[in-house]
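As the next step, I selected for study a record pairing a protein sequence with its backbone structure tokens, which the following lines show:
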Amino acid sequence: ARTPSVFPLLSCGDCKGQVSFGCFAAGFFPQPAFITWEGVASGESLSFPEVAMAKSQFGLSSRVIMDAEKAKNGKFVCQVQHRSSNLKEEIK
């Protein structure tokens, strides 16, 4: 099993009162992996299907869109679950 590398994804700013951010887990094997969020309400996140990468590895991403006011003082943590490990990455 290969452990994923986890990368935070940040938008460049405020778009009509909303912010977006995400998480990308790359380089894991085998499938599946799952992304969940701490500090994010149900319905605010969207996970995309796993994609094949080079050397029989896979990638997975998830994004969150929420009101900028709600996000201002929040703490948001991307959690990646895979058979090889459980990883957390705080979005700052």
Summary: The first helix runs from residue 68 to 71. The radius of gyration is 14 Å.
